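Field notebook, page 413. I keep forgetting to write these up properly, so this time I am using the form the group agreed on. The chain and the ligand, cytidine-5'-triphosphate, are recorded exactly as supplied. Prediction of the bound pose follows.
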Amino acid sequence: MTQAPLSGRKILLIVGGGIAAYKALELVRLLKKAGSEVRTVLTAAGAEFVTPMSLAALTGQPVRQDLFLPEDETAMGHIELSRWADLVVVAPATAGLIAKAANGLADDLASTTLLATDKRVLLAPAMNVRMWEHPAVRANVERLKGFDGFHGAAVVGPDEGEMACGEFGPGRMAEPAAILAAIEGLLAGPGGRPLAERHAVVTAGPTFEPIDPVRGLTNRSSGKQGYAIAEALAALGAKVTLVSGPVALAAPAGVERVWVETAREMQAAVDAALNSEDGAADIAVMSAAVADWRVDGVASGKIKKAPGGPPSLSLIENPDILAGVSAAGKTRPKLVVGFAAETTDLEANARAKLSRKGCDWIVGNDVSEAVFGEESNTVTLFTRGGEAERWPRQSKAEVARKLAARIADHFRA
Ligand code: CTP
């Protein structure tokens, strides 16, 4: 599946204070046109040059200006905001913002976000030519570029030309089209879409096993965790087939959803996805809460109340989809990840499932705490032969992004 590089990508744009801030509005427009989702942070100095209203109107999202605003923090905390993004762009990046980021100073929302993010940062510097050439600024930029991993900053511009202050030289912010091209390059690069060319099959939600045409057996899975995983894998470039039981969720952008109802339909859809024309899948993440049993002999008409008392239901076991995928032979995905929903002895039960089902990883889920339908989740990742990795309670979106990043690392290694 080829996708436009910016379609469905999440860009956090930090607008600093400088005359070039007006160009940030055009950048937002171009990003939106290319299909990206854009959220913005406006610094106090930035708000001297563009209004929050313009950014809100162009992004369709509230503009974040304050580190300590309860309304903002409850909607999406600043740490979550910094992780939400696929890329953080600072335009204009002023000498002050660059200095703060290079020295780990976090005294407002913009600088705190830059320190907290686990994504790459693209700087579009804009300042007076003397300032740009000052050794302090040069050292700060070099320092930011040199930080390892995701944190190494990329820089676009500045351009040379006549400046608002009347002087001439490098210091003008790069044009929005050039910043857009730099964003595309970063998102298409090895750090941006590490799962490009990979096919992932994700199961999510409950299954529904009919008793008769109007009744059935099901469970309380909301599908939120599985949908978030499908979205996070797609954001890293994977082609994702989401095999979903009945849930009330929209399909994430760029994900192919296959609706199923029963466990056997889910198994058939997973088999079809594993054997699709474009070859076997690389990754399977089985997060669905598959009903263990189905009713033997589904009634063709509605079962009526009868004087003899309630009917008795005879149950038969459903196929274990995860075990089947793990044992699929030639079409077995290289990485098979299962879930273990447990109320007691998480580690022992999850490890037992890991070997019984023959998968590679198990995401252990303590369902004694509220999980079903919640926005957050506490999980522990168990790998074959590896130490248990306990992740703190965090949003399901965050769990998904972390899992997708772990999967990308696995394929990189
Ligand atoms: N699973 C599956 N097919 C089934 C049952 C479970 O693919 N028929 C998968 C789930 O998607 C999950 C993993 O197996 O990835 C474990 O599911 P869980 O409900 O925790 O385990 P069960 O096998 O049902 O075991 P038990 O109910 O005894 O805990």
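OBSERVATIONS:
- The pocket of cytidine-5'-triphosphate is lined by residues 203, 263, 286, 288, 290, 292, 318, 320-322, 338-341, 353 (CB under 6 Å).
- The CA atoms of residues 271 and 325 lie 8 Å apart.
FOLLOW-UP: compare against the apo run.
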